[in-house]
Amino acid sequence: MSTNEIEKTERVERAAAIADAMSGGGPDPRLRRFIAALYEHVPPADLAARTPEDLAGAALALWRFGSGRPAGTAKVRLYNPELAADGWSSPHTIVEIVNDDMPFLVDSVTAAINESGREVRLAIHPILAVPRDGDGRLRPLDAAAGTRESWMQVAVAREPDQAERDRLAERLRSVLGDVRAAVADWPTMRATLREIVTELEQNPPPLNRSEVAEGRDFLRWLDADNFTYLGFRDYVFGESDETADRPPLGILREAGYLVFGGLRDLSKLPGDVQAFLHRRELLIVAKTDRRATVHRNAHMDAIAIRRFGPDGAVVGLRLFIGLFTSVAYSSSPRSIPLLRRKIEHVMARSGLPPASHDGKALLHILETFPRDELFQIGEAELFETATGILNLQERQRIALFVRRDPLERFVSCLVYVPRDRYSSDLRQNFGEILAAAFKGTLEDFYTHLDESVLARVQFVIRTTRGAVPAVDDAALERQLAEAGRSWGDRLEEAADAAFGEAEARAKLRRFAPFPVTYQ
Fold it and tell me: Can you list the positions of beta strands (E) in 195-352?
């Protein structure tokens, strides 16, 4: 055992003795075991920064807070510890949570805290076997007996405002409710997906056989630990939940939880949106309007399986929402159903030999295409975009490729810019230009840099359904190119006009580089 570990053990033992004295009830083996478990996995450096008295007071406060908890509930409190009132003090606001142990708790809680604009300074979260009586009171602790519970004590940036602390506490209770709903219904959601796959096998919809087979393979791929189920809802267009075949599950149990909005009353949606929902295609892969509160703070993925009536018309959707796992983003797209089909079809349509220079370049473009885009984009649009990128080759110019969401919720813009010209200022400028063009707001951006001479930035612009302006993509690209022109670009243009290209290059080589102060 290292010196740091020995010092940590001694400090925790001293804290346990102090806590015994502070509790006023004499030695309590339960409390001592709790303190040992609480600090077992805390790094020695974090404990070394605190006195044994401080560690004892913090542990005793959490012990008392968690001593009573009704079954199936989460206890949450935020407070600023004061020595006189709480038996210990801290420069931070303390979040305490006692809950049944389940997946995603720590990720979801820290994501909610970070989303609120507060920084997590220290998170202690042991899992304890906690025996309780019928009223939820603690009985003697036993390492091998009782219900597994998650006990959290999280230090965050200090919040002096009680109302703000109350708001964050309520937000955390809501998040923990979402976690409980998703985890409790996970087996049923998984069984529902498998039932739908079986139904597609036994009673396939009136679509192309290969499309249905690829759709079934994709749903099976989702279920092979490539998708985190968070919710399910059965939509019958124009009807209520009561008329659906299956009840809503997970976070979609709540009737008011809107994912896309307006999916029942199609008459209120723009005509092109209605046409998209009624397309004679099996699957829709899209992003939801809402960010996940479970696991990680990201826009949730939506997988919708269209329902077909006796006449072959689309009459509804079976909708799963959740998050693709990390494997779904790191695996080769040629190993993923739906994506492999898109890539095969685009390569075939291009007519390029796979072993040729251009064939390899096009395949690289497809394999490194933004993964969420690759899931959502149609084959025809993917072909146009990918071949447009291929035609750039190593040409160092600014280029724009736009994809409009069929549900009119956002516009995705891929901007290519010479890598040596890329900067955060230029990216911010581009984001403002794109947001203004589509009368929306910049939701996210993702930068991709590799060995290419071009950097790629994806901008996601949030738009308003029914109010997305018609934009001339070529004119918008020219506006970006103008915004991205450097002083050197303008000098070269002026020199070309004055002397002709050959003489201009010769003269510029004599004087370059021009100092920034001269520019």
Answer: 227-236, 249-250, 283-291, 299-308, 314-324
pTM: 0.89
Residue 79: partners with Cβ closer than 8 Å, 6 or more residues away: 86, 93, 94, 96, 165
More confident residue, 191 or 49: 191
d(C-alpha 31, C-alpha 67), whole Å: 11
Confidence of residue 143 (pLDDT cuts 50, 70, 90): very low
CB of 126 closer than 8 Å to CB of 40 = yes
Q: Token pair for residue 267?
A: 């008459």
Q: pLDDT at position 255, please?
A: 82
Per-residue CA distances from 161 to 158, 165, 249, 344 (Å): 9, 6, 37, 58
Cα 170 from Cα 78, distance rounded (Å): 10
CB neighbour list of residue 377: distance below 8 Å, 6 or more residues apart: 342, 385, 403
pLDDT surpassing 50 at residue 468:
yes
CA distance 153 to 66: 11
Question: DSSP labels for 101-129?
Answer: --TTHHHHHHHHHHHTT--EEEEE--EEE
Backbone dihedral region of 338: left (phi > 0), alpha (psi from -120 to 50 degrees) or beta? left
Residue 343's closest CA among 318, 369, 325?
Answer: 369
Return the amino acid letter for 338.
Answer: L
Q: Say yes or no to pLDDT of 291 above 80.
A: yes
- CB-hemisphere CA count at 13 Å for 323? 16
pLDDT at position 337, please?
98
264-268, 313-317, 438-442: least confident range: 264-268
The Cβ of residue 28 has, within 10 Å, a number of other Cβ atoms equal to: 16
Show the tokens assigned to 289.
């309007």
- pLDDT reading at 385 higher than 50: yes
Calpha distance 247→234 (Å, rounded): 7
Asked if 328 contacts 227 with a C-beta cutoff of 8 angstroms, the reply is: yes
